[in-house]
């Protein structure tokens, strides 16, 4: 497969009481997607314990990370019987504690891409001045107030 152009990150807050049903449904969809020649990856991951974890005694956070060759390939997958069954299983089985979150991403950004984006933002006046930043740009500094721990 060529470099994937569409990456999907879907998070699911699974009720602990429905964990076996979710695992069975996720296993089916991962197997089916893995057979698709346009799917570069289909991984299921479970949140590990950490200070700001989302998982609780009542629910566990899972992430499905998918890589597809194109938007059309992803759309075809979404309309597939396997994907529609997965969706139906989640809804009808009362598996989720809340609505899933879904985000689509393009190809990986290289350092050169990030620098070009920063230059374009500066040129268009999108950059806000920060008196703490050194001349020539900002640096990442640990910050307990941000989600990722950096600002």
From TrEMBL:
SUPFAM superfamilies, per database record: Dimeric alpha+beta barrel
InterPro entries referenced in this protein's UniProt entry, alphabetically: ABM_dom, Dimeric_a/b-barrel
Positions in coiled-coil regions: none
Domain ABM: from-to ranges: 6-85
Annotated stretches, region: Disordered: 126-151
Name of this protein: ABM domain-containing protein
Species in which this protein is naturally found: Durusdinium trenchii
